[in-house]
Design brief:
Shape: elongated
Oligomer: single chain
Number of strands: 7
Structural class: alpha+beta
Strand order of the largest sheet: 3-4-5-7-6
Radius of gyration: 43 Å
Largest sheet: 5 strands, mixed
Strand content: 5-15%
Helix content: 55-70%
């Protein structure tokens, strides 16, 4: 891969040589085939090759030269050989691609009109003036058999599909190049048609960006699946239509050719829906020009239309829709005309006109329905996939939002805890300083006072150490000062909740005097938040129980267990505001963070028909409230 990138990067400044090289190759082929070296043929070939050579650097001039070449051939009285016609058709295809890829907006659309007009002109040169002749049967109109007119129409359609496909391919290349303002070029075809830049991108599949893509980068399993599907399609068609595909005759060979072209379209349906659509059109027109009716291989048309709606961008998607309508019209017209020619209806045209019109209308309705349904099915699958991806992105965004809110809640609770601890630490340090100064001044008058002061200093410092360990972050903002709550203030909070209309039962069990200041603040805040949640989300007609119990088991150690139990409301389905996940509240993360920072733990969740919050806060040894 690095060697390939290095080679392509070295060739990038010389891409303008590609079209002149192709022109030289075409002229060389004309010389090698041993064609007559007449002035008209040489002039036409030179004009076609000049149009190819200038299609990148001077697309306007290339378009004018191509018109001169076609007019020169039409004005020439003599008939030129079939190889000359094939060379001219190939030159027109290359010139149209270059004009659509590198021309301006006006020149590009002039090229599209030229593709439509050149198709019947070259078809006339191929059939009427050339060596490609169709069987002669039916009425003679203007000196030509009706079958010749039908053959000219089919040849015009074939060339129109080829020319428009080349133009459309160039148009998609120009559009992708215009939108790819940055990043690697996603395909070798676009790189070759680009005026400058580096080597084509070699990144992983799906890294080309969000712009229009002529060639989609597939993973290896996807590519393997598409190729295997094309092989299975060929095998199915050969088995079901063995007599038509493998009979050693002209009809059998043409049927097999149509099958192979359709198989290529099926294999490319996901990698490049635009190219797949063009190849499917080519196969369909080859099928009609070789005189075949409906074949089993025609199911590839449904697969390709489905793929254009599912994988194509906006232009390719609507090109598929237009192809469904045009294809239904062309197929109905072809089947009607071939049926009329086969039964000799043109001999009795006036009496059979109504029957032909009804047959055409019926075939058109059936064809449009079948082709349109395949396209609509692809569009529905595309819409479903987009909705699923959007839903997944929305759920992911909701999860990210909940995580962010939880982080904010935790940080807010930590800030609140730091503010609560501010007074505790400041008070402890003030006591330590006062006791140390008092002991220093009183050591001569009252030596026993030193021991008492040291005991007080030790207890206070131990309590302050616990409080400092609780702090996880040091805030540099000034916080408003105020009295800090303690375990004794829980009763006041219970009374306030009762006054709000929620019946609360309060129970204390055991001795609860061993908690430090940090643990008392945490206990108060946990009870306060649990009662607030019960008031907001619980059943206010049933009482809430609050139990403060002494804990002294071997597993948890001495401390206090807080249990708040409330009844839940009857659940009612409520639509979410954003259609996503429920929002994370501030209560539970804040309570859990307080209990953790105080050295304990907290659990909360449904229990039966109620909701239970249980917290454990340890007693700090050597500290008395």
């Amino acid at each position: 891969m690095p060697d390939r990138t290095r080679v392509l990067s070295a060739l990038a400044p010389h891409r303008w040589v590609l079209e002149p090289a192709l022109a030289v190759v075409l002229f060389g082929v004309w010389l090698i085939t041993g064609l007559p070296f007449d002035l008209a043929g040489a002039l036409a070939v030179l004009l076609y090759c000049a149009a190819v050579a200038l299609s990148r650097v001077l697309p306007v001039v290339a378009l004018e030269i191509a018109w001169l070449a076609v007019i020169a051939e039409l004005s020439e009285g003599s008939s030129l050989p079939l190889p000359h016609r094939l060379i001219s058709a190939v030159a027109v295809v290359i010139a149209l691609f270059g004009i659509a890829s590198h021309g301006g907006k006006v020149v590009r659309w002039f090229g599209f009109g030229s593709a439509i007009l050149w198709a019947p002109a070259l078809a006339y040169l191929f059939t009427v003036r050339g060596d490609l002749k169709f069987p002669q049967f039916g009425p003679v109109i203007g000196g030509y058999y009706t079958s010749q007119g039908v053959g000219l129409l089919m040849m015009s359609l074939l060339l129109a599909v080829v020319f428009v496909s080349a133009w459309l391919l160039g148009f998609l290349v120009a559009r992708q190049r215009a939108t790819a303002t940055s990043g690697p070029v996603p395909s070798l075809l676009v790189w070759l048609a680009s005026p400058g830049g580096g080597a084509p991108g070699l990144g992983a599949p799906g890294e080309e960006g969000d712009g229009p893509k002529l060639v989609r980068r597939l993973t290896r399993p996807q590519l393997t699946f598409d190729i295997a599907g094309a092989v299975a399609y060929v095998f199915f068609c050969l088995v079901t239509d063995f007599t038509s595909s493998l009979v050693p005759s002209d009809a059998g060979r043409s049927t097999f050719l149509v099958l192979i072209v359709f198989a290529v379209a099926v294999a490319l349906r996901r990698m490049s829906p635009a190219v797949s659509l063009a190849i499917a059109w080519l196969a369909a027109v080859v099928q009609m020009t070789t005189g075949h009716n409906i074949l089993v291989s025609d199911i590839a048309v449904l697969v390709v239309l489905y793929a254009t709606a599912l994988y194509g961008d906006r232009v390719v998607r609507y090109a598929g829709l237009i192809s469904a309508g045009v294809g239904a019209f062309v197929a109905s017209l072809y089947l009607t005309l071939t049926s009329a020619l086969a039964q000799g209806y043109f001999d009795l045209l006036s009496s059979q006109l109504t029957g032909m019109a009804l047959q055409f209308a019926f075939l058109f309705v059936v064809s449009a329905t079948v082709l349109g349904l395949s396209w609509v099915l692809g569009l529905l699958v595309r819409t479903w996939r987009n909705a699923r991806a959007s839903r997944h992105a929305q759920v992911q965004a909701e999860l990210d939002r909940n995580r962010a809110e939880e982080v904010v809640v935790v940080e807010q609770e930590r800030t609140r805890i730091a503010r609560d601890m501010h007074d505790v630490v400041a008070h402890s340090l003030a006591v330590v300083i006062a006791q140390a100064d008092g002991a220093r001044y009183a050591r001569h008058a009252d030596p026993d006072a030193v021991d008492t002061a040291l005991e007080t200093i030790a207890a206070t410092a131990r309590s302050a150490l616990v409080d400092v360990r609780v702090l996880l972050a040091e805030l540099r903002q000034s916080q408003p000062e105020g009295p800090q709550p303690s375990l004794a203030d829980v009763d006041q909070t219970v009374e306030q909740v009762r006054a709000a209309g929620l019946p609360v039962t309060m129970e204390r069990r055991g001795e609860l005097d061993g908690l430090g200041s940090a643990q008392q603040i945490a206990a108060y805040r946990i009870v306060q938040e649990a009662l607030t949640n019960a008031l907001r989300h619980g059943d206010t007609t049933r009482p809430v129980s609050v139990v403060l119990a002494q804990a002294g088991g071997a597993d948890s150690g001495p401390g206090i267990v807080i249990t708040v139990r409330n009844s839940m409301k009857t659940p009612t389905p409520e639509p979410l505001a954003t259609g996503g996940l429920p929002r994370i509240g501030h209560g539970l993360p804040g309570m859990r963070e307080r209990a953790t920072l105080a050295g304990g733990s907290l659990s909360a969740g449904p229990a039966g028909d109620g909701f239970v919050v249980t917290a454990f806060l340890p007693v700090v040894s050597g500290v008395r409230a």
